[in-house]
Write a structure and sequence with these properties.
The structure holds 2 protein chains of 2 kinds. Chain A is α+β, with helices and mostly antiparallel strands. Chain A contains 6 helices and 5 strands; from the N terminus they run ααβββαααββα. In chain A, strands 1, 2, 3, 4 and 5 form a 5-stranded mixed sheet that branches. Chain B starts with 11 loop residues before the first helix and ends with a helix. Chain B is mainly alpha-helical. The chains are: A alpha+beta, B mainly alpha.
Chain lengths: 186, 103
């Protein structure tokens, strides 16, 4: 029956594998217990400890906070997508600073017309907002659901440096864009 | 005492805590003990799912063992948690009995 252990997460097997195998030797599971092990093995993947996540609160607004929730997936991919989304805005602002603050006109005058492109222009404005959302979403995660008859949930902060950097740069670009908008319109 | 699988009191974590309240036990001993006092035949996967969760919540802790059959014991926090849950169940039982008696 030891093949059933392969259904469990590696970390779980490292911690409980030997003693669980000993229990299976004692129990000699029939079809029902085998099904129980199969299902529990799959559930163990969902109930893995959150690893580097940090639990921020044990109880929020009457909701019991539970530490057993799956870690947020594909964080690096989201951060990379955020990074791509802020490139047009960051490039535009850098070239604008070079031209209007430092008197270096050539780069802006050469590339500037590109930012009037109907595809690039909206991305230059909306990019930081989208980048902030996609890079922050996997960093802060709130899971709420019914569990054993009570409302429970988990609040996780997975502080991946790349996500935090992209979030911070996006937030800074949003502030610059808002200031620019206010100066231009009021 | 007959505890059905859909009965709230048949929560695996609660049954494991109740079993360990009588003293440290390894997995198989917990399983047979639970069956003896609750008639719940807990599957090995369910049992170890509950043990892992309770250990993560520091309600139980493993004891050193030379054998592969590692015993677990209730922690102080586990004792407090069990007491609180049993008091809650006791309250429900009281209310239920009072209401049935008034019928």
């Amino acid at each position: 029956m030891s093949w059933l252990l392969r259904l469990y997460p590696r970390r779980w097997r490292e911690r409980y594998g030997d003693e669980f195998a000993a229990l299976l030797e004692d129990v000699r599971p029939g079809p029902r217990a085998t099904l129980d092990v199969l299902v529990s093995g799959l559930l163990a993947h969902l109930a893995q400890p959150p690893g580097e996540n940090r639990l921020l609160a044990q109880r929020v607004g009457g909701i019991d906070m539970d530490q057993t929730f799956p870690p947020p997936p594909r964080q690096t991919a989201f951060a990379a997508a955020g990074l791509v989304l802020i490139v047009p805005t960051a490039a535009f602002l850098t070239l604008a600073v070079l031209k209007y603050w430092m008197g270096i006109d050539a780069p802006f005058d050469t590339v500037g017309p590109l930012f009037a492109n109907p595809l690039i222009e909206p991305l230059t404005v909306a990019g930081p907002f989208l980048a902030f959302l996609v890079s922050t979403w996997p960093v802060v995660r709130l899971n709420i659901g019914w569990r054993e008859g009570t409302l429970s949930g988990g609040l996780a902060l997975r502080a991946r440096p790349l996500n935090l950097v992209v979030s911070a740069v996006s937030a800074a670009l949003i502030v610059v864009l808002l200031v620019y908008f206010l100066i231009e319109n009021f | 005492v007959a505890i059905g699988p859909r009965d709230g009191t048949a929560d695996p974590g609660l049954l494991v805590l109740m079993s360990l309240a009588a003293g440290p036990k390894h997995g198989y001993a917990v399983m047979t003990d639970i069956e003896s006092f609750s008639r719940v035949r807990m599957g090995p996967g369910t049992l170890y799912g509950a043990l892992a969760r309770l250990e993560r919540e520091r309600l139980i802790e493993p004891l050193k063992s030379d054998d592969r059959r590692r015993p677990y014991r209730l922690t102080d926090a586990g004792g407090r948690s069990l007491r609180a849950r049993l008091e809650g169940i006791g309250l429900l039982v009281q209310v239920g009995r009072r209401r049935l008696a008034a019928r």
